[in-house]
Amino acid sequence: MKFLLLLVTLTACAATPQDLSGKMFIFPQETSTAHVSLTTSRQGFAAVTVCHRSFTDLQRDHALFSLATPSGSNDFLTYWDEANKGIAPHIKSVKTLYKGLDYKSNMWHSICTTWDSESGLVQLWVDGQPSIKKFASSGSNISGSTIIILGQEQDSQGGGFDLKQCFIGMMSDVHMWDFTLSPCEIQKYMEGLNFTPGNVLSWSALEFQITGRVLIEDKQKLCS
User: Fold this and answer.
1) 19-22 LR contacts (CB < 8 Å, sep 24+)
2) Overall pTM surpassing 0.85 (yes/no)
């Protein structure tokens, strides 16, 4: 019985889409195992937009969103690079770096990353402010079966986790689209207004599996 309870505690999943509106994932400790796997049947992306909100006090490298395929462990990665003090999107394993961001500890940040394979351009939005566009990778799609993970950075598809790259904190409102979301829609997401939910991943209809100590709680609201 104790073993069964342990399994239930360590691994939880939503086999059918679950509405997580108003809720958040909590990653409460440094670990090389705990993570959330997000499920999608979509394969092959000529363009991508990923948006999420996160809250952390980390003062080291950490992964915010990790998508891997059999041919590339960093096919779409959003990552805080502590040494360079910037957010580093990786597209098909090509790194771009955005510095000078107001990425303060102990507060919520809304982050969106867009990429289009035709132009090869990537753009970052942080708390409503767009970055310049930088070249990452063009001419080919992100292809093959995808594994999407929150809380860890994949150095091989579905694994290769590093203790010092894990995320500690809270994460919410994760969405992914298979096109570049318009600036107007991104602004609506940033401001918490009515926007078009992700057609690849949607926080209001999310299929996921939790491994290790990751909790789901209501987002905290401060009294005014």
Assistant:
1) 19/204, 19/205, 19/206, 20/172, 20/203, 20/204, 20/206, 20/216, 21/203, 21/204, 22/218, 22/219
2) yes
